[in-house]
Write a structure and sequence with these properties.
Largest sheet: 4 strands, antiparallel
Number of strands: 30
Radius of gyration: 28 Å
Structural class: mainly beta
Helix content: under 10%
Number of helices: 3
Strand order of the largest sheet: 3-30-29-28
């Protein structure tokens, strides 16, 4: 046999041996368990890939010589209404979690069980076209705002839910009217008092009172009229000038005990802000080019730190259990425009992801993407947390429908 022939035969057998090893490895040997690979998202954002599931309980079947079933909780989002609402509140009734909301068209109040989405009307008091609702934490009292029949005057009604003694009957929402043309208001954290702004010939005045309008005390007076108010802690009200992309805004703290005013932020274009429950941190945004950027301001050190995410504070709610944590709806894409004006006017709309942000160390935690969960995305406003902060309630700005996000089991 020639040396050339022998070499060919040896190469042939080596190829057969290599082929057999490869075949044996991929068909006979199996890994001891496949890791669960979450579906990432790719939207041009700066965050790492994160789970984006519509959620609920999922079963992960792995094979290790037998079948092991594990329950892994994933956040989920639930549509509570398919008609416009005027904000809502999450409450517990006999340890049962429910959402309470006012139907925008009629003013009727409904309770909806989050466990099975069954709905019950608890008040048939008719107040058409309610634009705003400010709920007490208990959900038993609320302040509603709507236009008078002249379509110009703003009416503000403070009511208390009176449930029917008849299980089959409707309750009512009796109450009193507060002064006409209140421009802006906020409830105290206790829910027992409110603070509201009225325009005057010289500018604006700010008044605190009980929910029924009694025990009035003037706390604020300013030559400017356009202010947004937020009663954040028992002794502190945040006063922010109404934002616009071409106007420098300011934020003041108003002490409810002494009526003393302290300027906290100023000279910021497009300033919009949200102060935490102990007035130690402020999340704010400012106009930047054709978009906006977000910051965390430390009141004690008077220093701002850029956030790793950009959103408008109106799309956020502070935790009351951990005062330096905030839940925010973060736009997945910010189109060029004049912010925040274009968003207020409805010229632009967002599709949000829900995140939790630790303002102490800057860490962020992805919760759920509204687009991946619903197929169309949600432009989130009016965020509020349930009693145990396992659920987040929000309104879709596009159609005013009410949604709940289950964040914890």
């Amino acid at each position: 046999m020639s040396r050339k022939t022998a070499t060919i035969i040896i190469i042939f057998f080596i190829l057969i041996l290599v082929g057999f090893v490869v075949w044996f490895y991929f068909t006979k040997i199996k890994p001891s368990g496949e890791p669960l690979t979450p579906n990432g998202f790719d939207d041009g954002f700066i965050f790492p890939d994160s789970p984006a599931s519509s959620g609920g309980k999922v079963v992960d079947n792995t094979t290790t010589g037998g079948e092991i079933t594990t329950n892994v909780f994933r956040p989920r989002i639930i549509q509570l209404t398919n008609t416009p609402t005027s904000s809502g509140v999450l409450i517990k009734n006999d340890d049962v979690l429910l959402g309470r909301y006012i139907e925008r068209a009629t003013g009727h109040i409904y309770d909806i069980l989050l466990s099975n989405l069954s709905k019950t009307r608890v008040s048939n008091t008719t107040i058409p076209k309610i634009y705003e609702v400010y709920w007490r934490e208990s959900g038993e009292d609320g302040v509603v705002r709507y236009l008078d029949s002249d379509e110009e005057s703003i009416l503000t009604f403070s009511g208390e839910l009176q449930k029917s003694t008849d299980e089959q009957g409707d309750g009512s929402f009796p109450g009193v009217f507060l002064p006409k043309n209140i421009k802006n208001l906020s409830l105290a954290p206790s829910g027992k008092k409110l603070f509201y702004l009225l325009w005057t010939e010289d500018g604006s005045t700010g008044v605190s009172s009980n929910l029924d309008g009694t025990s009035k005390v003037q706390l604020w007076s300013a030559p400017l009229r356009e202010w947004l108010v937020d009663w954040t802690s028992p002794t502190n009200i945040s006063m922010t000038s109404k934002p616009s992309f071409d106007t420098q805004g300011s934020l003041f703290f108003l002490n409810t005990s002494t009526a003393y005013q302290t300027k906290v932020l100023g000279g910021i274009y497009g300033l919009t802000a949200k102060t935490n429950p102990d007035a130690s941190k402020i999340v704010y945004s400012q106009t930047k080019g054709s978009g906006f950027e977000s910051f965390i301001y430390d009141v004690a050190t008077k220093k701002s730190q850029a956030m790793t995410v950009d959103t408008l504070p109106e799309k956020c709610v502070w935790s009351t259990k951990t005062v330096y944590e905030i839940y925010c709806a973060i736009p997945t894409q910010i189109k060029g425009g004049y912010y925040p004006d274009d968003w207020y006017k409805g010229t632009v709309s967002f599709s949000d992801d829900i995140w939790k942000i630790n303002t102490k160390n800057g860490l962020t935690e992805f919760i759920i993407g509204t687009n991946s969960a619903t197929g169309e995305g949600i432009d989130s406003i009016n965020l509020s947390l349930g009693p145990d902060e396992k659920f987040l309630l929000l309104t879709n700005k596009n159609d005013l429908t009410l949604w709940a996000v289950q964040m914890k089991e």
